[in-house]
Amino acid sequence: MSSQRIVPPVTRFKVMTLAEYKKVYQESIRDPVDFWARQSKKLLWEKPWTSAITGEPPRSRWFEGGRINPYQNVMGKHRDTFVWSRVATIYESEDGDVEILTYRRLDDMAGRIAGWLESQGVSKGDWTLLYAPPTPEAIAFMLASLRLGAPFEPVFTGFGWYELAKRLRNRSPKVVFVVDGYKRRGKEISLVETTEKAIEASGVETKILVSNRLGLRLPRLHETYPLDDALHENHTADSRVVDSSDPIFGLHPGYEDDFKPVSLPAGGYLTQAYATSYWLGLKPLEVLFNTVWPGWITGVTYLLFGPLMTGTTIVLYDGAPDWRSWDRWITILERYAVTIFLTTSGALRALSKQNPETYRKHNYDTLKAILVTAEPLDTDTWSWAYRQLGTLNRPIIDSDPALLSGAIPVVNLYIQSEIATFATGNLPSYTFPHIVPGTNGPPIPGFHLDILSDGRLVVKNPWPAMPVEAPQEYYEKWSEGFYDTGDLATYATDGYIQVLGRRDTVMKINGYRISPGAIEKAIETLPGVKRALVAGKSDTQKFEAPVVIVEGRAEAEQIRKLIREYITPIADPAEISFTDKIQYATRHELKNKLRNL
Amino acid sequence: MKLRYGDIVLTIEEEGVNINSEICIDVLKSTECKQHIYTRPIENTSQVMQVSQEERAETQGTRVRAFPCKPCIGNCETGEEATQSYLVKSQGFSIYFHGCRHMPCNLEGLQGEKIDILILKIGPENMSPEEASELVKTLKPALAVPLCHAPEDGYKFRDLASPYTQVVLSI
C-alpha cells in the first residue's frame, strides 16, 4: 500500500485539505437524504417531488410525486444557450474519418429517430435495445428513446449472440437498434449475423433499425428498416414527462449465477449523473474522451448522460487502441484538444507496456485530468500514468517535462452498475484533497461507505439512483441493513478506500464484470458436458482470468470457441481442464484454491 | 483527413480543402472537384474558376463569396493584398476559409453570418497562431481547422483557441 501524498502541480492552488474534505463529507452523510434532495433541485422538474425518499432500502423510492422530462434535462435545456451551437460529438472511425455533430444537429437526429420510433408504436414505458459501438447514431438512438420516455438497454458489442438473446428475452424491446459493424485492427466486425441469431434464438418479436455504416447486408429478419428511413422522417416526437421512479435505462451486470437485469430510475439517476459529472469538472468547453463503451455503466453515465447534461463535447472512437500503433488514443487527445481522459486501469496497464517515446512525441497540453476506473489501479501503473502521460510538454508551475515530474491529476474512481455513478475518488471541481496513489480516493460526498472488519465494502445509506428493478441477489445484499457491494477493500492512508477486487466469485476481467455462472451455463449446453465450474484467478495484465473445469467430454478449442461466440472473447479462459468428477462443490471453493496456489 | 459535419464532407489537404467535391480551395494537387478556387495567385490556373473581389459564384446549391484581404496598420486599411478569403454556403452550413496573411481590419462583410466551420492558414507566410486565435474569438465558429506548416503552430493555436471553439488538428 502506498503512503505517498501527491498534489499535482495544476491543482496546487485549488486542492483542499483533508480536514476540509472531511468536513464536507461528514456533513453530507449526516443527512444524505437532505444532501441528495438539494442536488435534485439542480434538475428541471415538471412537477416538484413531494417526498425525497419513501420506503426502506433496498425498495426505497426517491423523489416521489415528482415528474420529470429526462430529455429536457439532458438535451433540451441547452436550446437557446451558446451550447446549442457547440460540438456535442466528435466521432473518429478506425480509418481516421471524422464526423461532427453540434448539440443542435444531435437533437435534430434524435428527434427524427424518436418520430420514427413513435410511428412504429414505441411509447412511454416501452423498452428499446441497442447493440452498437459508440457512434453518433447510437448516441442519437439512446436520446430518441429518452425523448419518448422509453427505457433503453445498451448491449456491449463484445457480447455474443447467446448473451444478446438473454437481454432480448428479459427486455422484450419493441425496437432493436444495430450498427451493421465496425472495424477492429483493420478487419470488419459484422454485427449482422449475431443479431439475426440472437433474435431468432430469443423468440422475441421486434423491429430492427440498422445503421448501414460499413455497407454490409441488412439482417434477414422480418421487420428490418435502414436508419436512413428514420432520418428522413419529417415527424419529430415531442419529449415526454415520466414519473421520478420510472426506469430510464437498464443494464445486465454480472452476478455469480448469470448476467441479470437492473433498471435505474429517472429522477434519482439524473440527479446523481448530473451532480457527479459536474463535480468531475464536466462543463461546456470541456472535451471528454471516454474509452468505455455504452453497455457498461461508465459508458452510459459518463459517455452519454453526464457529458450531455453538462454541455460537454464527447469524443467517440470505435476502433482498437493499438491501431495502427499504440499512440492512437494519444493522437485523439492531441487532435481534438481533449481536456478530460477517462479510461480503465487495464487499458493503462496495456499502454504502460509500450515504449514511452511513442507517447512523448505527441503534444496534448490541453489535458487537465486522467480519470481511471473499473478494476483496481496499482501504484506502479498509477505512477507510470502520472509521470509518462500526465507530464505535459509545457512546464506548469514546478512540473518539469524533462524530469517527467507529473503535472495533471491521475484519479482512480470506484463505480458499480447498481450505484450508477462514481462513489469514491478525488473530484476536480468539488472535493479534491491530495491523491494517494494505488487507492480509489476518499468516498464521494453523499455516499456513506464503510469497510467492515471482514473487508467488505458497503454503502450504509440509500442513494438516489438505486435500482427500481434488480435480481434477488441485489435485494439480498441489503439483508444486514446496508448494501454489500460484493467488493473487498481496505482503508489506506488517510482513510482512503482501496478496493482489492471481488469478494464473491464474480470476475473482473480487464475491467469487465463477468458472470462465471453465465459461462458455466453456456458450456453445459455442449453434449457430453455434465457440469462446468468457472472462477477467476489473478492475472497481471487482465486483473483476473477465468479458469474452467469441465466434468465430461469436449475439446478445449470447442470450449474456447463457444465462450467467444456465446458469451464474449473477453472471457477467454486462462486454463481449461477436464475431469470425470469435479472435486469442488462450489465456485467459492475453486476460487479459494486458485487464490492459494 | 475526411471530416463530415452534418451533410458537408470536407477533405482536408495540406494546403487547402475540398468541400463536398463541389469546391476546392487552395487544393494544389489534382482531385475530383467541380470548381477549384485559390486564395492567392498561382500559376497554370487557366482551367480553374477565379472568384475575384466581391464576386459570387454558384455551383449546384453551393454559393461562394470572395472577400479581398485588406491588411491594416492600426485601424487603417492599407490597400489590397493579392489574397482573398471565401465564404462558402452549402447544405445550410457556412464555411469560412481565411486565406489572408493577416488578421483583417474589419469583418464587415461577415456581419450577421453564423460561421459553422473556420479553416485558416497558419505559418510564416500566413497568420500567426495568436492572430488566428483572435479571428476565432471574433467569428466564434463551432469548429476551427488550422492548416499549418509546423506542428508547433497548430499546438499553439489549439491551446489559445480551444476555449472558444472546437479545434480539430489535421495531423
CATH homolog superfamily of the domain at 507-595 in chain A: ANL, C-terminal domain
The total domain count of chain B is: 1
Largest interface (C-beta under 8 Å): A-B, 25 and 20 residues
Shape-level CATH architecture of chain B: 4-Layer Sandwich
**What is the end-to-end distance of chain A?**
22 Å
Largest sheet of chain A: 7 strands, mixed
Shape of chain B: globular
Low-confidence parts of chain A:
none
User: Can you tell me the overall shape of chain A?
Assistant: globular
Q: Bin the strand percentage of chain A.
A: 15-25%
Helix fraction bin of chain A: 25-40%
Explain the layout of strands and helices.
The complex is a heterodimer of chains A (597) and B (171).
Chain A: H1 18-30, H2 32-40, E1 45-47, E2 51-54, E3 61-64, E4 67-68, H3 70-74, E5 87-92, E6 98-102, H4 103-119, E7 128-131, H5 136-148, E8 152-155, H6 161-171, E9 175-179, E10 181-184, E11 187-190, H7 192-202, E12 207-211, E13 224-226, H8 227-231, E14 242-243, E15 247-251, E16 262-265, H9 266-280, E17 287-290, H10 297-309, E18 313-317, H11 328-335, E19 340-344, H12 345-352, H13 357-360, E20 369-373, H14 379-389, E21 410-412, E22 449-451, E23 456-459, H15 472-476, E24 483-491, E25 497-502, E26 507-509, E27 512-514, H16 516-523, E28 529-539, E29 543-552, H17 556-567, E30 575-579, H18 587-595
Parallel strand pairs in A: 5-18, 7-8, 7-9, 9-12, 12-13, 17-18, 17-19, 19-20, 20-21, 29-30
Antiparallel strand pairs in A: 1-4, 2-3, 4-14, 5-6, 10-11, 15-16, 22-23, 23-24, 24-25, 26-27, 28-29
Helix pairs in contact in A: 1-2, 4-5, 6-7, 9-10, 12-14, 16-17
Chain B: E1 2-5, E2 8-12, E3 17-19, E4 23-25, E5 35-37, E6 56-59, E7 62-68, E8 72-73, E9 76-77, E10 84-90, E11 93-98, E12 117-122, H1 129-139, E13 143-148, H2 151-161, E14 166-167
Parallel strand pairs in B: 4-5, 11-12, 12-13, 13-14
Antiparallel strand pairs in B: 1-2, 2-3, 3-4, 6-7, 7-10, 8-9, 10-11
